[in-house]
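Appendix C: a fully annotated inverse folding record. The material below is reproduced so that readers can follow the format used throughout the book. The structure is listed first as tokens, followed by the designed sequence.
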């Protein structure tokens, strides 16, 4: 069986596909894309909470992979290396644009079926979206290192030893960054609430 037939039959191993993709083999790169697209997309979606942004960032992550696959030396698992690259792509985008805002339309669906409220009464669903916005803004205001560890641990659910591998730091450093990130978030949210309370 030729290598090309092996590839089309989906029997090419990940390691072989990586080596071929480094040489510019488009079919090998496509194999890698199909192996990892779901995981990269779900990571982007969890970090942005926006399907359109997650789709764009998934494409951007694979464009980065296409450009940089030649630098993969196999010192860590390919999935770990790709994950780190995808996280960096998302964080770069969040730095450029700020965190995605939850569309207000999402909180207003089904208005007709809901019981009538008194004009001026608090809309619980709307205040929940405001809280999400405050949290997203506070996360966006964290220093990049704190934000990365916070997202990986508290949003993604990674353990400190995994984060240390992904980010390239010590386990102690990961724990310290997470603690500082949480303290900073608490302060930012307190400030945000205090500002809100002083507004008429």
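Designed amino acids, in order:
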């Amino acid at each position: 069986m030729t290598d090309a037939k092996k590839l089309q039959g989906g029997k090419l191993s990940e390691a072989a596909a990586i080596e071929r993709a480094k040489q510019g083999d488009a079919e090998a790169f496509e194999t890698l894309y199909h192996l990892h697209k779901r995981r990269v997309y779900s990571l982007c979606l969890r970090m942005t909470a926006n399907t359109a942004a997650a789709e764009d960032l998934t494409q951007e992550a694979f464009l980065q992979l296409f450009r940089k696959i030649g630098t993969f030396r196999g010192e860590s698992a390919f999935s770990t290396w790709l994950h780190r690259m995808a996280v960096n792509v998302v964080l770069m985008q969040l730095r450029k644009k700020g965190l995605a805002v939850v569309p207000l339309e999402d909180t207003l669906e089904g208005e007709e079926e809901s019981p009538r409220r008194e004009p001026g009464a608090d809309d619980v669903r709307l205040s929940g979206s405001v809280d999400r916005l405050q949290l997203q803004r506070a996360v966006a205001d964290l220093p990049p290192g704190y934000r990365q560890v916070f997202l990986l641990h508290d949003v993604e659910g990674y353990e400190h030893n995994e984060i240390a591998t992904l980010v390239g730091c010590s386990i102690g450093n990961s724990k310290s960054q997470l603690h500082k990130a949480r303290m900073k978030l608490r302060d930012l949210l307190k400030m945000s609430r205090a500002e809100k309370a002083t507004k008429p």
